[in-house]
């Protein structure tokens, strides 16, 4: 098993398969998009499969496919199928905005995808357009319905933004009254592709306070080990609620995650500004054993928490890079 110098077991890989996205969410990237990674700099399917196999041999058993938007990548469904067949991987999941996902849901079910994180920051069609700069709200809702019809666990991810979607918090909580979903409210992070400031008013305590004012009977439930979300339920509701302290980073103590960017850079922390490029190592002819040594060394240098990682290696310019380039 992979362990860091703090004794934390690392068994969860977040694999970003592409940096491109078909939305332009205000909290993620500029309206005109980004300077996308050149095709030759992206990892190929074969390289992704190889590196994931190496991680599986080191004890990683959970992979989450992220982006950008994963389904923007050509033939992504074939890659997902091949990843699902890797020996040692017992938990395969993905994060998507839902625009291109619906047609692939039967295959995701067939491949054993256990859960899907669906980005949805509002239940209002006009606000959806304001936030994402795209008129695709109904498409996302159809994806949500289809996922539930196929009994795939759904976690709705909502970034809470002052002056943009505060009025959506309670309607989204009410979504869990009848539906078996988790709605998770996420603190806004500085990785927005812009130089603009973010509001820290709507942090974890403020989000919880707002929900409790409307639902005083809200109950704390047990948080799964290494969870990034603080879990809650409202008696009588079918689904659950979570709050992710993504900016204040109060969940780092038992972190079990690492991530690979679309260009193959292994980052031991979201707030880390550097990392080793496993794609370059593969293309230079490194053996699997040499790759394992590089990975182990990287994990041994994993920071105690996101604050330490940012202090050690993240510059001001890197803070404002997009989540699409880091890997969601």
TrEMBL record:
InterPro entries: Aldolase_TIM (IPR013785), Elp3/MiaA/NifB-like_rSAM (IPR006638), MoaA (IPR013483), MoaA-like (IPR040064), MoaA_NifB_PqqE_Fe-S-bd_CS (IPR000385), MoaA_twitch (IPR010505), MoCo_biosynth_MoaA/MoaC (IPR050105), rSAM (IPR007197). This is GTP 3',8-cyclase. GO terms for biological process: Mo-molybdopterin cofactor biosynthetic process. The keyword Coiled coil does not apply. It comes from Chryseobacterium soli. NCBIfam families: moaA (TIGR02666). Its cofactor is [4Fe-4S] cluster. It comes from the Bacteria. One of its GO terms (molecular function) is GTP 3',8'-cyclase activity. Pfam families: Mob_synth_C (PF06463), Radical_SAM (PF04055). Residues 5-225 form the Radical SAM core domain. Keywords: 4Fe-4S, GTP-binding, Iron, Iron-sulfur, Lyase, Metal-binding, Molybdenum cofactor biosynthesis, Nucleotide-binding, S-adenosyl-L-methionine.
């Amino acid at each position: 098993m992979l362990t860091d110098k703090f004794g934390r077991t690392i068994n969860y890989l977040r694999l970003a398969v592409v940096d491109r996205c078909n939305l332009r969410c205000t909290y993620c990237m500029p309206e005109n998009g980004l300077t996308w990674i050149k095709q030759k700099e992206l990892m190929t399917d074969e390289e992704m499969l190889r590196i994931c196999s190496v991680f599986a041999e080191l004890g990683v058993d959970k992979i989450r496919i992220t982006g950008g938007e994963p389904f923007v990548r050509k033939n992504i469904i074939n890659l997902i199928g091949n990843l699902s067949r890797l020996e040692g991987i017992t938990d395969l999941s993905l994060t998507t905005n839902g625009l291109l996902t619906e047609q692939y849901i039967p295959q995701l079910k067939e491949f054993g995808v256990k859960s899907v994180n669906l980005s949805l920051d509002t239940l209002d069609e006009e606000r959806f357009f304001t936030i994402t700069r795209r008129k695709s709200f109904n498409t996302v809702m159809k994806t949500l319905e289809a996922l539930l019809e196929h009994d795939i666990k759904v976690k709705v991810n909502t970034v809470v933004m002052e002056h943009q979607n505060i009025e959506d918090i309670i309607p989204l909580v009410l979504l869990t009254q009848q539906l078996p979903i988790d709605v998770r409210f996420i603190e806004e992070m500085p990785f927005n592709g812009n130089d603009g400031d973010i509001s820290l008013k709507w942090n974890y305590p403020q989000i919880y306070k707002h929900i409790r004012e409307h639902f005083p009977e809200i109950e704390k439930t047990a948080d799964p080990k290494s969870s990034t979300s603080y879990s809650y339920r409202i008696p009588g509701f079918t689904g659950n609620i979570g709050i992710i302290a993504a900016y204040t980073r109060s969940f780092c103590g038992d972190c079990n995650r690492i991530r690979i960017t679309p260009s193959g850079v292994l980052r031991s922390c979201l707030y880390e500004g550097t990392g080793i490029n496993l794609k370059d190592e593969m293309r230079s002819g490194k053996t699997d054993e040499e790759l394992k040594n590089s990975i182990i060394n990287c994990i041994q240098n994993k920071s105690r928490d996101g604050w330490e990682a940012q202090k050690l290696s993240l510059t001001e310019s890197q803070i404002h890079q997009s989540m699409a380039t880091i890997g969601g």
